[in-house]
């Protein structure tokens, strides 16, 4: 059973920064892509960003220029650096790992709250 451990959430003021981390129980090199979704209560889960095995990145339009996804193969960790945070970024952020088969593994979710 693959496990993903996400961390790094918290409370930050508008304009602030947070960095999320995601560590899978297997090597990140096993996955076609890794990334994050986020979810606000009462709304559908929204895809935020991913990084492929070839280190191509992509982002939802609302975070482009503010969020950066990266990975450290040596530390077996994927990061989501979130800058210039806005109240509308408040959500539970879920990291995921996508296998070539199309199967997704999910982390447990970490709360990000942007509020003054």
Task: Give structural notes.
It is built from no helices and 11 strands. It has strands at 4-7, 10-12, 18-24, 33-39, 46-52, 57-59, 67-72, 77-82, 91-98, 104-106, 110-114. The strands form 2 sheets. Strands 2, 4, 5, 6, 9, 10 and 11 form a 7-stranded mixed β-sheet that branches. The termini are far apart. The mean pLDDT is 96.
Task: Provide the structure class.
Answer: mainly beta
Strand content: over 45%
Question: How many β-strand stretches?
Answer: 11
Distance between the termini: 40 Å
The global form is: globular
Tell me about the largest β-sheet.
7 strands, mixed
**Assembly status:** single chain
Average pLDDT reading:
96
Poorly predicted ranges:
none
Q: List SSEs in N-to-C order.
A: EEEEEEEEEEE
Classify the helix fraction into a percent range.
under 10%
Radius of gyration: 13 Å
- State the helix count: 0
Q: Nutshell version of this structure?
A:
This protein is mainly beta and 116 residues long. Helix content is 0%, strand content 51%.
């Amino acid at each position: 059973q693959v496990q993903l451990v996400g961390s790094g959430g918290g409370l930050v003021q508008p304009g602030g920064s947070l960095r999320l981390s995601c560590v899978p129980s297997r090597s990140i090199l096993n996955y076609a892509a890794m990334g994050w979704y986020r979810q606000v209560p009462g709304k559908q889960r929204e895809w935020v960003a991913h990084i492929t095995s070839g280190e191509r990145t992509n982002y939802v339009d609302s975070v482009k220029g503010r969020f950066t996804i990266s990975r450290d193969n040596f530390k077996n960790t994927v990061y989501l650096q979130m800058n210039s945070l806005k109240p509308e970024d408040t959500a539970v952020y879920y990291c995921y790992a996508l296998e070539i088969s199309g199967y997704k593994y999910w982390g447990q979710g970490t709360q990000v709250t942007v509020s003054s």
